[in-house]
Amino acid sequence: MNNKSSIPTCPVEVRSLSAHVRPADNPAWSGERLSAIQERSLTVESLQVVASDEHADSHGVWSFGIDAALAGYDGERFQQEASFDADCGLTIELGAVRAPQGSMLCLYQHKEWWMRPCWAESYRQIPQRTQLLLWRSSGRYPDGCGEGYMWNAALAVCGQSLRADISGTENGFRVSVCSNVPGHTAMTDMVLVCASASEPYACIEACVKQGAQMQGIMLRDQRPFPRQCEGLGWCTWDSLGQEVNESDILLKMDEFRRQGIPLSWVLIDDGWSQVDRERKLLQGWHADRERFPEGLGHTVRILKQRYGVKYVGVWQAYQGYWNGVDPASGIAMEAKGFLQRMPNGCMVPGGEPQQSFGWWHAWDGYLRGAGVDFVKVDSQSSMSVMSRSLESYGATATGRHTGLDAAVAMHFHGALINCMGMAPEDYWHRPSSPIVRTSDDFLPRDVSSLTEHVMQNVYVSAMMRELYHCDWDMFWTEHPHARTHALLRMMSAGPLYCSDALGHTCPDELRPLLAQDGFLPRCDAAGVPDVSDLIDDPRRHQGALIINSSVASVGVHAVIGLADGSQEHGHGSEPCLAAIRAQDEALWLYSWDSRAAVRLGPGEQMPVAVDYGEASLYLSVAQKDASRYGGIIPIGVVEKYLSPAFVTHVVRTEQGVCVELREPGTFAYLDPSQLTSRVTQGNTDRTFERNDVVVTVESDGSPLFIDFNRQ
After folding, report:
1. Are 558 and 615 in contact (CB under 8 A)?
2. Could you state, in order of their start, the residue ranges of all structural domains in the chain?
3. DSSP letters along 302-370, please?
4. Residue 497, SS3?
5. The predicted structure's pLDDT at residue 26
6. Coil, strand, or helix at residue 590?
7. Residues 539, 563: contact at Cβ < 8 Å?
8. Contact 653, 626 (CB under 8 A)
């Protein structure tokens, strides 16, 4: 039974509720907006705060729901009534119960389709359209283990109808609730989740889990990673752009084959489909005949049969194409019952689930017949802009995503990459699709874009990885920051794909990522910022960001230099600094670059220095893990970034340890007590080298036996 006295108090207090009302004598179509809006106080009964005790022994979670209505005209509903403003119908003024210690991390929607992080040193600096607010305060731990820092989170939710956004005020923060449509006389929905815990990621996980449960959508662990996106992929976008065609795709495949790169999948991005390019309207489900003269199916067959590509995906737009479907086209007539005209005149797939499913079922059915295996659906968060004044935020997204996910599940076993969809109305309403892009585009020709690309992906993934597998976008292997981008994609635990142009692939950047047979290991979950980088902007603090994940029970840590020497980031030409810290137990920290290891006791740290744009990779293993293998700790095949993933089997015997590897290479392990007396493969002795506690030996791929000297 949970000890109720250990449940922390809610980290926020409600100060006031206000309705923003358009009077009956000044409707939305009058053109007089700002001066017409009236503010009315609401009673606290309009807000329900419900505490969840599911995890009361480790953290507290609170859900905030609103149920507010405006007085009508005594039943005369046919007359014009006062209504909630479509852009901001209701505001909730909140304050932190415990004052923030240090800056507050804000994840906010800075474009219609994307989010990014920033840090607020005061409440007033919390930006508009913030979706997650994370702060640290002093307080008592929920488990009753004394005083210390408490982590607190406030997460805005887009419910079945209404969208909530967080912003700062003079001495607290505000939740603004809006519908996107005029005329609402009642507002009822879930709008906010708050949590407190002794660990920051426990806070975020608790908030997202509660929100997902209320919305009826799956968490990441319930969304299997699609086999179609396993292995190394190649995308046409940053190579061919909208001029993509079969001939140029096949030229690139010839190059990959000459270089011996085991490509598993190809994504044919924007430019393949039958569209009016000037008006940006979809005109047919088939491929452009000038670019794909023998049809899309012909290209897919060649990729699979001639080049051994396992899976082929294609790009689609959520609206049909960027400006929708051509109303004069044949598919507009054929799919008439599945389309809907938006207030801006665009014809798009309809918002009802059956409309959405009908559209995607028809299009994806054709694609499956052509041999296509998965899809990337782009421009998703544009829909709530197109549907303004017609559909609420929740209604715009719920039916469309339900139909889309169902059609993709039927035709492609759910293999869908969601793109340009970081608006809350989208990520809170996808029932089952597995992958979401978490950043703006990789911009290969703008070298300075590295920092922004890293910051968006790593920080947004702190929230998104609870719901989805995260896609950190494609990259170039021939690029000033190629190795750093390759390491980042590895840390994403999502699809890993390059977009190299013809003649510009560097195989050496790809080989540390994957096996000779094309196997490409992934981290257990998307990498997230180290706790030390949550309350301070790493670009301004020390200049380097630590990204943490794991694989095969081994910690994986990438350190990226982000301060570029500009006045904005304030580090001049000095190296970017960070420190990797052991938490509550001793660990060994192995450097992939130097092949050396150091021991860190509980609370100890090791400083790291990297230049801007460069990256260092470290693996960490608990010191106590040595007891599992008789005193040694396997690291793995050291030519590969995720070295531990290339160890397939370890068996402890009375004489030592037997190790099986996925492929030949240099095997490394830690031997702190210098137990190794001999290493053999079959009947052959293998020479081993010792660098302090690190032992390396060349393996031909057959089982290695490490004989211990127990004298």
Report:
1. yes
2. 4-216, 632-711
3. HHHHTT---EEEEEEETTBSTT-B-TTSHHHHHTGGGEEE-TTS-EEE-SSHHHHHHHHHHHHHHHHHT
4. strand
5. 61
6. strand
7. yes
8. no
Residue 44 · residue 74 · CB < 8 Å: no
Q: Locate 339 and state its tokens.
A: 């389309």
- Alpha-helical runs (H) found in 110-236: 200-215
**CA neighbor of 337 nearest in space, from 347, 322, 350:** 350
Contact of 628 with 496, CB cutoff 8 Å: no
pTM greater than the 0.90 cutoff: yes
Q: Which pLDDT tens digit goes with each residue over 611-658?
A: 999 999 999 999 998 888 899 999 999 999 999 999 999 999 989 999
Give alpha helix (H) positions in 429-563: 450-464, 482-492, 507-510, 538-541
For 321-371, what is each residue's pLDDT tens digit? 999 999 999 999 999 999 999 999 999 999 999 999 999 999 999 999 999
Measured from the Cβ of residue 227, the count of other Cβ atoms closer than 10 Å reads 15
Element housing 638 (H / E)? none
Residue range 20-35: mean pLDDT, rounded: 65
Q: Which residue shows structure tokens 């990259």?
A: 475
Helix (H) and strand (E) counts in the chain: 13, 42
Percentage, residues of the chain above pLDDT 90? 86
Q: Which residues contact 443 (CB under 8 A, 6 or more apart)?
A: 449, 453
Label residue 570 by pLDDT band (50, 70, 90).
very low
Token pair listed for 438: 């978490």
Q: Supply 94's token pair.
A: 């909140």
* Beta carbons within 8 Å of 328's beta carbon, 6+ residues apart: none
- Structure-derived torsion over alpha carbons of residues 539, 540, 542, 545, reported in degrees to the nearest 10: -20
Q: Which residue has the tokens 């609402």?
A: 184
Beta-carbon contacts of residue 78 (< 8 Å; ≥ 6 apart) = none
CA separation, residue 513 to residues 248, 417, 609, 639 (Å): 26, 21, 23, 9
Strand-pair category, 104-109 with 115-120: antiparallel
